[in-house]
Amino acid sequence: MFKFLVFSAILALVVADDLVVKTYLNDVRADGFETNVELEHHSRQSAIGDEHGNMKGAYEYLTPEGEHVKVTYTADENGYHPESAWLPTPPPIPDYILKAIEYIKTHSHSE
């Protein structure tokens, strides 16, 4: 079974189309870096970073269905912060939960 899996993976690599790089920039300096890559099939990635590890960037691509996906992000001492219409969001908190929380805050007993 493992040999079949390895053979299938190698066959997939051989059959896959080669990606054509349209733009490639990779500038690393003492005070930070800048990178920009664009591929033939409308895939792009760009990022700028400073010497403290802070980054701002974006990546975008087309889904197999032809939909355009774009994600922008920042990364700093507080973590990774992506923004996109494609990222899932939590549902809103129901009103009865908000009212219960407010009730608990106003009627809590001090010890």
TrEMBL record:
What is a single molecular function from GO for this protein?
structural constituent of chitin-based larval cuticle
Q: Which regions span the lipid bilayer? A: none
PROSITE patterns membership: CHIT_BIND_RR_1, CHIT_BIND_RR_2
Tell me which InterPro entries the record gives.
CHIT_BIND_RR_consensus, Cuticle_Struct_Prot, Insect_cuticle
Record keywords, A-Z: Cuticle, Signal
Q: Which residues form the signal peptide?
A: 1-16
Q: Which domain of life is it from?
A: Eukaryota
One Gene Ontology cellular component term attached to this UniProt record is: chitin-based extracellular matrix
Question: Pfam families from the entry?
Answer: Chitin_bind_4 (PF00379)
- The keyword Coiled coil appears for this protein: no
This protein's name: Larval cuticle protein 4-like
Q: Which organism is it from?
A: Musca domestica
